Structure formats: structure tokens, C-alpha cells
Amino acid sequence: MCQTGGTEGAKEMAEKLESEGFNITTVIVPEEVCDNRVMKKDARNIEEELQHTDAILTLSCGLGVASITEVLSNKFPLIPVFVGTNTEFMGMTERIGRFYMRCQGCGDCLLNETGGICPITTCAKALMNGPCGGMVEGMCEVGNYEKDCGWVLIYKRLKQLGRLDLFSKLREPRNWSESGHQREVVWR
Amino acid sequence: MTEAKSYSKLGEALAKGEFILTGELEPEKTCDLSHTIEEAKQMAPYVIAANVTDSPLGIVTINSMAATHLIQKATGLECVWQMTVRDVNKLGIAGMIMGAQALGIHNILSLTGDHTAMGDLPESKPVFDLDSATLIKLVREMVDKGSINGHEIEDPPKLHVGGAANPNSNPMEPEILKIGRKAEAGCEFIQTQVVYDLDRTIEFLTGIRKYKVPILLGIFPMKSYGIAKGFDTFVPGVSVPKEILAKWKSVKKDVTDKKQQKELYDQYNYDLFKPFIGELKRKKLIDGIHCMAVHYPRIFPKLNDIIRG
Ligand code: SF4
Ligand code: SF4
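Output (C-alpha cells, whole complex):
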């Protein structure tokens, strides 16, 4: 989806590894690597190749590594899965090649109070009651005043919506009591 | 003040509505506080209290609570402990507030703090568990209700808590509304960022006066042309007006005698701030002055003249 790998990238990586002396048993491009169901199907199709595989390199985000490891854990528990990309963030796509962090899945969403703009993500200090003194002419001190101050964006949006009452609200600190451990959503 | 009780000289003066002068002390990167203590002694006769900074710009200096305690002990000058929410989480800060009480600290200034990425340990984890408004709220709960998160403190702390405001803020409206949040949180005094633009300052202070929190105006008398120029260049969002810079430059250029230079700088600062402060005082927009010029204690007698005048 983000073309961190894709058919082209995977092929290129395979060639590179081959030129370094690795033996490539197979190259696949699953449709949705983080969906266990899709991965299971794809893994079944390459079981033969997996018999002679010493390691897997994945060009997805970290979720792909976790998903492949779990899917293979019964039949091929000894194959290590390596990550070939650095996961920057789970981003919003403007177009291919332009991705932006807009949500960090914090588990305590307050977008309904902030005009749909996330302060956890757009404020460099993830403040609940910004803007801070680091704002100059609408820009943020972090990154040398090149990025918009998230709290000014929130202010402008709420003003546009006629909801400065929401901006004026004193917000409580984030509740971290649920965030410190492995999170899961299981409803079926 | 919402409470009649005063726990410090600063709290008492604010409650009485006295027009006050406060100073600022900035420990350097050393464990030896003798320089800072020397400055504190020089300003002590003129100020009601002095702030002690908490690693400004994210550049590590001695812990501000420790420095506050040691300066108070060595000089008898009451201090305002500056505490940023940058480096310590809510649990840690609550413990420090109790520690501050035990160390005889009775004023705290709640600040966000410059981001860790800007300082000399940029790889540190930025905490910001609280923010400048919710730290104020925490202090007020601990002091007024004697509890943390509803859990009783046997012998609660007695501190006054203040916050910062930036009249130079552009856009200005979110900054004004933010002061409203701090007031709601229980802020007992406001210290402003340094100002030079009188019209903007009047507009901003008029905007926040409705929150009824005493306001100490931040000023920065410039000790030399070099300091003035450096301030203008390196402090984002605050510029020193050109004509002032030119005047200071002329002292450096045209006056060779060092003593005479010093006297001129001091006199120019007096001439600059007297009408500025006078106008705001007349308009009843401020309740005192907070002088942020560090390492310039000899200016305090002149500032004292201004605020008494
Ligand atoms: S507050 Fe921000 S990070 Fe948290 S869930 Fe909402 S959008 Fe995502
Ligand atoms: S300037 Fe704005 S975005 Fe940057 S840290 Fe402060 S409030 Fe957050």
C-alpha cells in the first residue's frame, strides 16, 4: 500500500541479496500482511519453499513482522523474521510518496473536542492545553519553526466551526492507567 | 487571590495588592552556586522574590528545586521555584511539591519548558505528562484540599502557584483563552514574557484582565549592546525595537570609558522602562514587574525607583 516493498521493491531487494550470496527461496507480495487470515493463505501457498528457508525478510511495517511470526509459529517456529524497513508511523496517505502521521492510536481519543485535529500527534509536546510558549507566528519551536503549531491549527479549526468554547476548556491530563501494557480489542 | 491565606511574602504582597518587583536567577552549568548566590544578595534589598530557572532551553543545569532551597538558605531571599513539566511525570512532580514544602519553598511557577530536542541532551525522553495548566491545578488540589487525586496528604504543602503568559503571541486569541484555562485551574499570579511593544502589550493585558489574576510584567533591561543584540537574535518571537538597538550601539561605539558606559546603559534602561511601566500602571493593567535580566543585579535600584515612582 505504501510501497515500502511492493513487487518492484521486493524484486530489487531479492536481487541485491542474491548478489551478496544469499539464496532466495521465494518472493511474495501479500495483499495485507498485517491480516493473519490473508497471511495464513499466502503461507500455505509457499509451504514447500518454507521447508528450505532459513530466514524471512519483510519490507512491511512492524505489524507485518508480528503477523508473519505468529502465522508461522506452529509449522515453522524456527524461521526468524527480520524487518527490512524502519516503521516511521502509521500514516495518512495524501498520495503515494506522501504520508503524514495524524493519529497515534493513543486509546483516549479527544478529536471531538479538538476539531478533528489530534493534539497528541500535531503538538510536539502532546500537550492537552496548548499552545505553549514555544509557538511563534503560528509555528512550533521544535524543528526550527518550520512546522505548524498543532494547537494553533486546532484553534483555527474550532474558530471556523464556531466552537471556541471547546478550545477554552481546561482539559485533564491524559489517562495513562490503561496505556502501559499490551493493548488488545477482542469483541467476538 | 481567591484565598486570604498567604504562605509567602510574595503571596502576602499580592493579596495586599502591593505593586511589586521580582527578579530572576539562572544557575549556570556548575554545582557551585556561589555566583548565583552573589547575584541574589545584590538584588535582595529591592525585590520581594526571585525566580530560579529550570534548565532553560533544555540545557541542563542544577536542579531548580535544589538551587531554590540553597539560594534561600544562603541569602534569605525568597525564591519562586520554576518547575517545568518537561522532565518529570505527574507522580514525580507531586512528590517534588511535597519535597519543596519540606525544604521551605513556598512559591512555584508552573511552566511547560522548552522541548528536550532543543537542548544539550536532545535524545532525552520528553515527558509532558502534565501541562502548565494542569500542574497549577495539581498544586491547588494539594494545597487547598490537602489531597492528591483525592488521596489525603497528612501534612499538605503550602505554596502559591503562578503561570506564564506571552503578550507577543501571534495569533493572540488562543494565548488569551489559554490564560483563562490557567485562571480556572487556580493560577494565583501571571508572569509575562518580556515585552517591548506597548500597544500589543496593552491589547493583550486588557484581554486577560477579566480573569482577575495579578499580572507581573516581564521586562528585560539590557546590560550592554552585545546582550541586547543577542536577545534580539536568539529569543524567538521577541524583537528589540531598532531604535533601541541603535541607541545601545551608540554607547558601545562612542563611549570608551567603561564606567561611563555602564552608567549610560543603566540610565537608558531607566528612560526606556519608566514611561512604559508608568503607562501600564496608570491603566491598571499590571500589578508588578518581573525583571528577567539575569547577571545584571546593579539595575535593581533604578527599577526600584521606577516602581516606587
Ligand atoms: S487523540 Fe489523537 S492519537 Fe489519540 S486516538 Fe485520537 S487521533 Fe489518535
Ligand atoms: S509550539 Fe505548539 S505544537 Fe509546538 S510544542 Fe508548543 S503547543 Fe505543541
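Residues 5 and 13 of chain A are 9 Å apart (CA to CA).
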